[in-house]
């Protein structure tokens, strides 16, 4: 679905969660190319938005990567603190076809951008058909609630994850990045015990989930995506006096998806690409 058709239909734009490292923007070229094509190819106007990041050259790297792919109009926006986001004009992102959100520190990204006029503007744009992508911490920030910190490990425990408000583009979804590389299954499972009606998406590096307005997810990239679905969860229990103890979870459903695979988030069903 291109932007003009999305606007005509009154549907939201794609939400794209990209797992990766901002220092390796060129390795994500297939993902960036797909995002650019959604936004209009060489005629697209893409805004690269950085908020609360110490990595000042991340934006430059992605700007060069998009330009190398033939995108002629790339605008960079750097919001260093929450005051910058609150003072931004209501139309500061007006006219863009896509927003590409980068961030290196999930906690600082949430503190800087959550519930600000800039965040609200991105939400309005996406609802009207503008595509929004987030990479690394920016990917985790896309849903209503985000993982801002946590510990490695496969087993869920009450003290293994910290949550904060996200961008609120999509409900009933939790996203984590650097997933298998940094062994983050346990903190994802714990986040889902606090959000029992949500689906969890764990992104490997250089891998993206393209979530369309029809709630269907497609995988692009060289790694995998771990989908944890709690719709069939039968039991979970957190002992109130033992924060370090393992948490019981029975009835989870888990899929590992690779490029070409898809997941229907409404039907809770994975499919194999052809």
From TrEMBL:
The UniProt record lists the keyword Hydrolase: yes
Enzyme Commission number(s) of this protein: 3.4.15.6
Keywords tagged on the record: Carboxypeptidase, Hydrolase, Protease
Domain of life: Bacteria
Protein name in UniProt: Cyanophycinase
